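Our consortium's second objective concerns turning raw sequence data into structural hypotheses that experimental partners can test. To show how far this objective has progressed, the report includes one record in full. It was chosen at random from the queue rather than selected for favorable results. The single chain below, 149 residues long, was entered without modification.
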Amino acid sequence: RRLVEAGVPVVTLSVGFWDTHADNFELLADWHGPWLDRVLAVLLDDLEDRGLLETTLVVCMGEFGRTPRINNIGSRDHWHHCYFSLWAGGGIQPGRVIGESDPLGEHPLTSPITPSMVGTTMLELAGMGTADRAKMKVLEGGQVIDALL
């Protein structure tokens, strides 16, 4: 929040301990879940209380989803077919669920949202439209996730 108040245009937080290939369920229940719940809720409330959430895009996501099946060490491995992200503020419409997977969480039932679409949408919300992206040769031809706007 302090970086946003100071005018820093992009703030990234990388949580390196999140990649759980063992003890997945214990770590999620005892550590990762409660930590994320508390930290993300405080950040969003703090930004909202200070009037910064409307102009600050917050995206919580990982680099992969997780397999819908448990592996032989009681965990879940990387799965690129389906994953989630949480978006708040920055001009998006709140309270939406976009996209749907099959009942097992293996594959999208609706049109998939690609990493290119995620990046394009972030840039669009930051004020970098189609012409600007083309001029800079950044995500040329990328599609915006229209359902977020």
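The partners drew two points from this record. Residues 13 and 78 are 20 Å apart (CA to CA). The longest strand covers residues 57-61. Both points have been shared with the crystallography group to help prioritize constructs.
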